């Protein structure tokens, strides 16, 4: 208790201590950077990275200091890895969190964030699939971004969750879920809400789950093929035309042939045979022995099982969406049963309704985030993405407590 009182008495110095902490941190970083510089009595050599769009601005700023400054700008030599700065549009920026959680892209590959933004947005909405929950999330995190003073990282994360809420509104409205089946339980005087819900709804996965399952698998196929096409384009851009056609082109042809065969077209079996032959002849080409080349190609046909497994993995979108709806309906059913008891039953039912839906929202929003991210990392990134890049960390004033504004 004595220690607590002493700590409380020192709180009056909190603001000053925070300023001192940031000031000393800046001085320390300056001294650390000085150790990396080369200088003599008359010459100071500074070598570092600068973003390409900022080169002219840097030259202008340095020239304004004095005419004796010489600036040399050159591309990184072979073997040296430049740092990475992700540069995306305002609405895509929050989805950089998903990319960074995995790894920064290296300098030889494209930034996957624009693709991740689209797929993660759709997947999150499908996993949660309740318009009521989406409204709560969107409003809650919008207010958090606008009303609270939070760091830039937290602000981007809250925006990401806000976008997830928006996606959930669309997914929930299209599947007729508004806090589960709450609208269906309203009195007849609210029948107009039921009419609006039914007008917007295109499918009810609780009554007919097949369309939503099929759509989940279709999304999986679209994302897998997107990954293959990105790698195909990257190889072409890097001058690896042969690798692009033999590695990605052959598999795109083979997988499309299999899909056509599943569709039942009579000539499709010949396309599958041609595709399989192309795989056998190309996938073992790095081996020296002719038998090893053919053997490697034959064994690579087994990879089609991997593509099948990747596609089936997207059924989790359907499963998670169905789980959210089922738990919401259970909460509503319990509330309906209890509300038949006068006064006390209604109060208990109301408490169960509120806290039951809060629990369902929190636990399934967490699941939606984790599983939507997992699909990016395991099923999507493995088709084209290496990662391993180092973030661009410019030397600048970095503070933890104090916000510095240029006046």
Rg calculated over all Cα atoms: 29 Å
Mean pLDDT: 88
Structural class: mainly alpha
What's the helix count? 15
Spatial strand sequence of the major β-sheet: 1-2
What is the helix/strand order? HHEEHHHHHHHHHHHHH
Write down how many β-strands occur, each being a DSSP E stretch of 2 or more residues.
2
Largest sheet: 2 strands, antiparallel
| N- and C-termini, Cα separation | 45 Å
The general outline is flat
Query: Which regions are unreliable across 5 or more consecutive residues at pLDDT < 50?
Result: none
Helix content: 55-70%
What fraction strand?
Answer: under 5%
Which helices and strands, and how do they pair?
Elements: H1 2-10, H2 14-34, E1 38-39, E2 44-45, H3 55-63, H4 96-102, H5 113-128, H6 131-147, H7 152-175, H8 191-200, H9 210-237, H10 241-262, H11 268-282, H12 290-300, H13 303-313, H14 315-338, H15 344-380
Helix pairs in contact: 5-7, 5-14, 5-15, 6-7, 9-10, 9-13, 9-14, 10-11, 11-12, 14-15
Q: Which terms would index this structure?
A:
mainly alpha; single chain; 15 helices
Summary, kept brief:
The chain is mainly α.
Describe this entry's structure for a reader:
With 407 residues, this protein is mostly helical. Among the domains are: 2-63, no CATH class; 93-239 and 314-383, no CATH class. The protein has 15 helices and 2 strands. Strands 1-2 form a two-stranded antiparallel sheet. Helix 5 (113-128) packs across helix 7, helix 6 runs antiparallel to helix 7 (152-175) and helix 9 (210-237) packs antiparallel against helix 10 (241-262). The longest helix has 37 residues, at 344-380. The chain is flat. The two termini are 45 Å apart.
């Amino acid at each position: 208790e004595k220690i607590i009182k002493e700590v409380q008495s020192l709180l009056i110095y909190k603001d000053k201590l925070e300023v001192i902490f940031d000031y000393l941190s800046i001085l320390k970083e300056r001294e650390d950077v000085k150790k990396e510089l080369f200088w003599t009595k008359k010459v100071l050599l500074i070598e570092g990275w600068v973003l390409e769009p900022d080169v002219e601005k840097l030259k202008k700023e340095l020239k304004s200091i004095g005419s004796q400054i010489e600036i040399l700008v050159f591309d990184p030599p072979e073997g040296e890895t430049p740092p990475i700065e992700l540069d995306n549009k305002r609405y895509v920026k929050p989805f950089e969190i998903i990319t960074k959680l995995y790894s920064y892209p290296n300098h030889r590959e494209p930034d996957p964030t624009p693709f991740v933004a689209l797929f993660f947005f759709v997947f999150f909405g499908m996993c949660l699939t309740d318009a009521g929950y989406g409204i709560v999330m969107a409003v809650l995190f919008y207010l958090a971004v606008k009303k609270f003073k939070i760091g830039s990282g937290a602000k981007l994360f809250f925006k990401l969750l806000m976008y997830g809420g928006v996606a959930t509104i669309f997914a929930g409205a299209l599947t007729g879920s508004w806090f589960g089946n709450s609208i269906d339980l309203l009195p007849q005087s609210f029948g107009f809400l039921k009419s609006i819900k039914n007008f917007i709804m295109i499918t009810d996965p609780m009554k007919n789950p097949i369309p939503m399952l099929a759509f989940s698998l279709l999304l999986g196929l679209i994302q897998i093929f997107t990954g293959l096409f990105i790698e195909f384009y990257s190889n072409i851009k890097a001058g690896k035309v042969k690798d692009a056609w033999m590695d990605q082109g052959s598999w795109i042809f083979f997988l499309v042939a299999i899909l056509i065969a599943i569709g039942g077209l009579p000539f499709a079996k010949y396309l599958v045979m041609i595709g399989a032959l192309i795989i056998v002849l190309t996938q073992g080409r790095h081996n020296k022995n002719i038998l090893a080349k053919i053997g490697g190609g034959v064994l690579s046909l087994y990879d089609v099982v991997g593509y099948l497994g990747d596609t089936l993995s997207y059924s989790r979108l359907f499963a998670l969406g169905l789980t959210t709806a089922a738990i919401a309906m259970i909460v509503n059913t319990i509330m309906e049963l209890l509300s038949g008891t006068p006064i006390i039953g209604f109060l208990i039912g109301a408490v169960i309704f509120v806290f039951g839906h809060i629990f369902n929202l929190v636990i399934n929003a967490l699941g939606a985030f984790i599983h939507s991210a997992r699909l990016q990392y395991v099923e999507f990134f493995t088709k084209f993405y290496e990662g391993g890049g180092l973030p661009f960390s410019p030397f600048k004033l970095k503070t933890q407590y104090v916000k510095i504004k240029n006046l």
